[in-house]
Every structure is written in C-alpha cells, then in structure tokens.
Design a protein that fits this description.
Layout lengths: L4 E2 L7 H4 L2 E5 L3 H12 L3 E6 L6 H6 L5 E2 H6 L3 E4 L3 H15 L5 E4 L3 H4 L10 E7 L3 H9 L6 E7 L5 H11 L7 E3 L2 H14 L4 H15 L4 H30 L2 H10 L6 H15 L2 H11 L3 H12 L1 H15 L1
Parallel strand pairs: 2-3, 2-5, 3-4, 5-6, 6-7, 8-9
Antiparallel strand pairs: 1-9, 7-8
The structure holds nicotinamide-adenine-dinucleotide and magnesium ion.
Amino acid sequence: MTNPILTDADIDPSAIHDKTVAIIGYGNQGRAQALNLRDSGVNVLIGLRPGSASEQAARDDGFAPLAMTEAAARADIVMLLVPDEVQADLWNGGLADAVRGGATIGFAHGLAIHYGLIAPRADLDIILVAPKGPGKALRADFERGSGLIGLIAVAQDASGSARATALAYAGALGCGRAGILESSFQEETEADLFNEQGVLWGVIPELIEAGFDTLVDAGFAPEIAYFECLTEVKLLADLIYERGIAGMRVAISNTAEFGAAEGNGRIVGDAARAEMKRILGEVQDGSFVNKLMADARAGYPALKASRQRAAAHPVEAVAARMRALRDQN
Ligand code: NAD
Ligand code: MG
C-alpha cells in the first residue's frame, strides 16, 4: 500500500497558529520541536519534572519551564516527549487529570498508545507526529530552510480535526518542506521497533564489530580494521541516501562492486531473514515491549549491561584515538 506524500501545500497552518503547545520533556526531540514550533509562530510552553537536568537548557533557549501538569493544563496540544517507557507513569501520575477537556495529546512515537500503556479519555484527540530522525537533525534542517520527513497518524479523533492538527504540527516542525506520510500508530510503532532491532541500531554496529574482530584476530592493525569496517560506513550511508542501493553500486569501483555481489547472501542469508521475521513477531505480539518495560522497572539492568559491552569492545579504543587525531587537525 502506498500513500501520497503531503507537503506544505496540503497543510492549513491556521490549525496550530493560535494554539498553545505544551512540550513535556526537553531532551532530544523536545528541544528541537520546541524551537522549531516557536520559530513557526506557535505559542510554546515547556513542562519538566522538578529539578530536571534539562531545565537549564530550556532557560538558555529562552523558555521559562513550568511543572509538567501546569504546562499541560494551559495547553491546547500536549506533546509527550519523555522516554517511551516513562510516558504511562507520567500520564497516570497527574498529566491525565491536568489536561483540558477536548485537548490534543501528541506523541513522536506510537509505542505507549499502540500497546495500550496509556488509555486516554474519550474527549481527547490522540495524534502522532514522528519526525524520521534525531532532534539535532530536525533542528539543523529547519534552520537551513529544509526539513525532515515526518509520519503522522491519528489514534482518536474526538474533535473531528485531529488529522488537520497533526498535519499543521508536522508543518510547523518543518516536515512539510520535505514530505509527510500518513501512517497509523500500529504501522509506525511496529516498523520503528523492528528496524531498531533487526536492521539499524542492532545489526549494523554488530556487523562493524564482527568485521573489525575478524581482521584484528587475523593480525591486521586495529587502525586498518577501524578504517575499513567503521569509518567507511559513513561513505556507504551517504551514497545510499543520495543515490539508492543500485546507484551506490554504480558509484564504487568495479572491484568493490564485484566484491559486493560476491558477499551478497553469505552473511544475510535465509537464517538472518528468518530471524528478522521472529523479531517482527516479538514486536507485534507485545513480548518486546514487555521486556522493555520490565527492564525499565528494574532500573535498566539489561540496557546498562549492553552499554558496558559496547564500551568495552576493542574498536572503541581505536575510535577514541582516531577521533582525537581528527580533532587536532
Ligand atoms: P530523551 O531521553 O532525549 O529526552 C527525555 C526528556 O524527558 C528529557 O527532558 C528528560 O529529562 C525527561 N525525562 C526522562 N525521564 C523522565 C521521567 N521519569 N520523568 C520526567 N521526565 C523525564 O527522549 P527522546 O529521545 O527525545 O524521546 C522522546 C520521544 O521521542 C520518544 O517517544 C521517542 O521514541 C521519540 N522519538 C525520538 C527520536 C530520537 O531521535 N531520539 C526520534 C523520533 C521519535
Ligand atoms: Mg524509535
């Protein structure tokens, strides 16, 4: 199923211009979204927990942060930009009672709604506006006059104008300059969780580490292994982003292209594809989210252990040396 890609020409910005948006959380997404909205002429309030580490950052950017419930109570649109696994606790711990009747509640990722961690009142509009990229890119692209691709979706439309609100919000973030795709909470959430584990953040770094280990174990210099297996990932990503996979193949040398053809299917074979299907199954049946929530409740033992494993890998020492060299020059 393909959807049309919407742009600024499809958006009525008045759906957000006279509105007050409360951004709850001033982290990666929160800061970028707050600044883009403000520059687009939207009235922005910031809601933070008492003593939040983000408070100074918000003040430095010219905001006067409020308590989360106070910001929520004053807003037409309340955007929950705190980590996915804490959203339900904050919602049930005060935000749900604070939000106005008929308000819009927005998310940048559909997890809490899709898996039923938050069960919103029937009078609220529930929208998703998910920029496809980190906050830094969302802000930097906006400042350059372009934007990030964004997904929008509506889970609950009490007012009849939830879609228009989501579109106008995405437009104010700058996504309408690049393209806005209509999706659903289910599609955005499951595809995002699948990709995190099965393609991008889970697999590509592991391939880099495994390739580095293979060369170093065979007696190659760690610096050579680092350049071959890690830094060239940036060249690859840029090429694929600019030209697609087929275009990337044309842009590299014949030797590299022939090698790519030889390597195809050997690492990512039937077993890897079958495992991808299992990962998608665990995303869809909720078992992945149950694990995530259990880890969060226990103080993140699994998350912390995986951070330590990554930090201890020998490629990190080379990477640190190379970054230091690069920064000197
Ligand atoms: P983050 O970790 O950068 O920021 C979280 C903010 O919430 C910070 O201000 C932090 O101080 C605050 N916070 C953390 N724990 C809290 C708690 N227990 N109580 C109150 N406040 C708390 O989060 P993020 O990466 O910006 O993610 C926010 C949302 O955006 C998530 O739904 C995420 O899936 C989504 N999203 C993130 C990205 C990304 O690139 N990081 C991209 C698209 C969507
Ligand atoms: Mg994600």
